[in-house]
Amino acid sequence: MGERKIFAGPRIRRIRLSKGLSQTAMAAELGISPSYLNLIERNQRPLTVQLLLKLSSVYRVEPEELGEEGGLLPALRTVFADPLIAAELAGEGELAEFAEAMPNAARAVLKLHQAYREQAERLSDLGELLAKEGRASLIAGARLPADELREVLERRPNHFARIEAEAESFGAALGGAEDLFVALKAWLKAEHGIVVRSLPVAAMPVWRRRYDRHTQRLFLSERLSPADQLHETALEAVLLRMRDAITAEIAALALSSDEARRLARFEIGRYAAHALAMPYEPFLRAAREARCDIDVLRSRFRVSFAQAAERLTTLARPGAAGVPFFLLEIDHAGNRLRRAGAAGFPHLGFGGACPKLGLYAAFARPGEVIAEAADMPDGTRFLTVARSLDGLAAGFDERVRRTALLVGCDAEFRDRVVYGDMLPPGRALPIGPVCRLCERVACAARAEPPLTRPLGLDEMGRGLSAFDFQ
């Protein structure tokens, strides 16, 4: 209780008025000044532990009665964190006073916001449906700068020609070193006086990479795998060496805010680091020879499974393109962390939210590669490859962050992909883009009814799906 600030001004005022006391009289009984009591009643000061105990002994008020009413305050904090209204409140005290003084009105606001969010989700799904049918829609929800950047990157090919050219030039300047990590450390030291050092977790409890400008040292956490250490070092190097090319690519994205452009700098920097570690022509050649075997590629270029998989989605150079892969990464809760594609992520053709995909089964089969053919309702067939990924090394008392990655392509390319050999002829998993847009009948995995069909409410029987429809 000592760590939690409790604002209960309206309740203190109600207690005082119910007993017919003035602020001066109540302040005297509590052993505080009238001015301090006035600040408390106006939610300008929180209740201290000592004051809570005094209220309990003098007025027989239990401390729990002065806490957040029914969880209203945490829920209101979530509502007012919405970008649409985040700037409307002066501070925490005003929100606490609203929850305390008008709890019924606060609950009404929560219901209204919930309805707004649900409606926004339905409109978003409807917008996708209209776009799929060739009808434009101007429906859009509230977007943060990160949302804007994500949408822009997902809808364009995951290929930056300027960055590829600069990465090839940088690689040539490094002399095509066999050990890129050693070469990058030497380049940073020679060109910028930066020394790369690995530090223990205790010295970098919240950082994976940190550059100290004063001592000219780049610190890497020992949590990082060798592949991640290479990536972080390459990221620092390309942000220095390829500044103009990165700036030009950011300008071409036509983002609307400085924050979105700053985020884009790191995203394109990541791309540049991959391009440097996995040069375009050698990687394309290796991908063709290995038939896009991601484990072979990651071993050959000394990168991680995720880095090699993401590089496959960038092979879209005119006249020298690879298999047009797309990629999707999620966490345990189903949050979409990354979507990209050589031709843009296929939102409408694939979706990626069907719970039957191997992407979601990968968490139960850690480290295993799950290759499947997946059929969409319109007859389009995709080849999908899913695998779980473990995050940074964790201590004994920490839980490893695990995500799942899916790499996919149109099934017509299966002969150029080693995973296509693992698929039984003629067999495919029937999936949909998302439950609200999927009209597959009797799907046991269905989580929501389709927007396009009326529900079938038959008291005489029940189908396999949680939502039967006509």
Automatic annotation (TrEMBL):
The record, for Gene3D superfamilies, names: lambda repressor-like DNA-binding domains
- CDD domains in the cross-refs: HTH_XRE (cd00093)
Keywords (alphabetical) are: DNA-binding, Transcription, Transcription regulation
| One GO CC term, this protein | cytosol
Q: Which InterPro entries match?
A: Cro/C1-type_HTH (IPR001387), HTH_RamB (IPR026281), IrrE_HExxH (IPR010359), Lambda_DNA-bd_dom_sf (IPR010982), ScfR_C (IPR018653), TransReg_Diox_bact_type (IPR050807)
Ranges for the HTH cro/C1-type domain? 12-66
Question: Domain of life here?
Answer: Bacteria
PROSITE patterns from the UniProt entry: HTH_CROC1
> Which SMART domains does this one have?
HTH_XRE (SM00530)
| Entry keyword Mitochondrion | no
MF term (GO), any:
DNA-binding transcription factor activity
**Protein family membership:** Belongs to the short-chain fatty acyl-CoA assimilation regulator (ScfR) family.
Protein name, UniProt field: Cro/Cl family transcriptional regulator
Q: Which organism is it from?
A: Aureimonas endophytica
